[in-house]
Design goal:
Elements lengths: L2 H24 L17 H7 L9 H4 L7 H12 L5 H20 L3 H4 L5 H16 L3 E19 L5 E17 L5 E21 L8 E6 L1
Antiparallel strand pairs: 1-2, 2-3, 3-4
Length: 220
């Protein structure tokens, strides 16, 4: 056996020995493995502590509309205890729509449509004005433009009857004109936008199946 061939066999034997040695130390891998990265995220318990919800904090559905710790805020909190689904924000959204519906129903004399949303006292006072206009041959021409401002100014709750009263100040805008039998404008201007301010009180018994509030008092 010549010298070059002998050297080749010796090198081949050394290579096989090294391969077997490395396999025994490093082991083998099959398929694709993602390289392991250092986990720098906080432990699960640490994350839970950082994002733990603090219970008993202020209710922004209340303090966004009335001063915190005021009698009105206390009344609203008790309303929510009686009826957990009650939302001040949702009530005010409904009051905005009710203002337009009731105001326009009154101005146009459409009392039957708004009667379910009025207390007996308010209905009678509205109906009296409408009947007086009709007796004089007057008609009202009105179109609602929108609510410029809306503010909850007071809240009260009768603990015995569970009747809640919420008072809202509205600043509405509408076109308004009164015409006589001949069709002549005797009050207002059908082309001018009029600003009207109203303070309305709505009432409802909390915790009942009837979700509708009734208008029980009006003022300015």
């Amino acid at each position: 056996m010549n010298s070059p061939l002998l050297q080749l066999l010796v090198l081949a034997g050394i290579a096989v020995f090294l391969i077997l040695r490395l396999r025994s130390v490093l082991g083998t891998r099959e398929g694709f493995e993602k390289p392991r990265s250092v986990d720098t995220a906080p432990a699960k318990s640490d994350r839970a502590n950082k994002f733990e919800v603090i219970e008993g904090g202020p209710d922004h559905d209340i303090i966004d509309h009335v001063p915190e710790n005021s009698p009105a805020a206390g009344a609203l909190a008790r309303m929510k205890q009686l009826e957990p689904s009650f939302s001040v924000g949702e009530f005010l959204g409904g009051a905005r729509g009710a203002y337009e519906m009731i105001l326009m129903g009154f101005e146009r004399g459409e009392m039957a449509e708004i009667k379910p949303f009025l207390s007996n006292e308010v209905y009678e006072s509205f109906a009296y004005v409408v009947n007086e206009r009709e007796a004089k041959g007057l008609t009202v021409e009105a179109d609602f433009v929108g609510v410029k401002e809306l503010q909850l100014v007071d809240a009260e709750l009768d603990e015995d009857t569970r009747e809640a009263e919420l008072t809202v100040r509205f600043v509405g805008q509408l076109t308004f004109a009164v015409r006589d039998r001949a069709g002549e404008v005797i009050e207002g201007d059908p082309k001018a936008v009029k600003t009207q301010r109203d303070v309305w009180t709505f009432a409802r018994h909390m915790g009942t199946d009837d979700p509708n509030w009734q208008l029980v008092a009006t003022g300015e």
